Amino acid sequence: MSVAASHPLHKVALVVSVYNATVTDPLRKAAIAEFLRRGGKPENLLTYEVHGSFEIPVVAEAIMHAHQQNGVLLTAVVCLGCIIKGDTRHDEILGDVVTQELSSLAVRHRTPIGLGVLTVNTNEQALARAGGDKGNKGQEAMSAALDAAHAVHAARHLQGAFHLSGDSPDKLRS
Q1: Does residue 171 form part of some domain?
Q2: Fewest Cβ atoms closer than 10 Å to its Cβ: which of 5, 12, 63, 147?
């Protein structure tokens, strides 16, 4: 079942880092395609560009806060970026901070965040996850965010259990 069939996709925000654009552009395209495939309307997908992955959490926070202040339901936020290991621990610190902040935002705002910020050792690993032999993590992040939005919607309206569609290769079915 598509999320749109039982849950209106009011607004979904897509926050994309332009750093490592050869990786983040395919992530963005796949996330948009998944949103549309799941029944979303183009006018309900709000795209914001940031320089690097470090800027993603603060922009996501601003988007979520502005929508709450204006009484507009933000269904989900999908965050896409790429952090590639260098000669120092900078990538580890950056990846940890971004992930922790996005997790905190999701809980604080009760809004699902699709995490599509790659943390990889090489550019080849990144490209493999941006439409290569490891799939496309942009598509997966959008799918996960929309599934979570559907579950949150069901929980808020006491609609009982929610079962995943099974679209993601790593979902366990009972």
Answers
A1: no
A2: 5
Q: In this structure, what CATH number is given to the domain that contains residue 111?
A: 3.40.50.960
- The domain tally of the chain equals 1
Query: DSSP string covering 24-68, please?
Result: HHHHHHHHHHHHHHTT--GGGEEEEEESSGGGHHHHHHHHHHHHH
- Report d(CA 73, CA 133) in Å as an integer: 36
pLDDT of residue 155: 82
What does the pLDDT look like over 65-102, one tens digit per residue?
999 888 888 899 999 999 999 999 999 999 999 999 99
CA–CA distance from 127 to each of 2, 28, 102, 154 (Å)?
A: 28, 13, 23, 36
C-alpha distances in angstroms, 66 versus 69, 72, 74? 5, 9, 10
95's enclosing H/E stretch is helix 90-109
Range of the domain at 14: 7-156
For the annotated catalytic residues, the residue numbers are 90
- The reported pLDDT for the residue numbered 57 is 98
- Number of Cβ within 10 Å of residue 56's Cβ equals 27
Cβ atoms of 82 and 53 within 8 Å: the answer is yes
**pTM exceeding 0.85:** yes
> Is 162 within the bounds of a domain?
no
**Residue 64: exposure state from Cβ atoms within 10 A (0-12, 13-18, ≥19):** buried
Mean pLDDT of the chain: 88
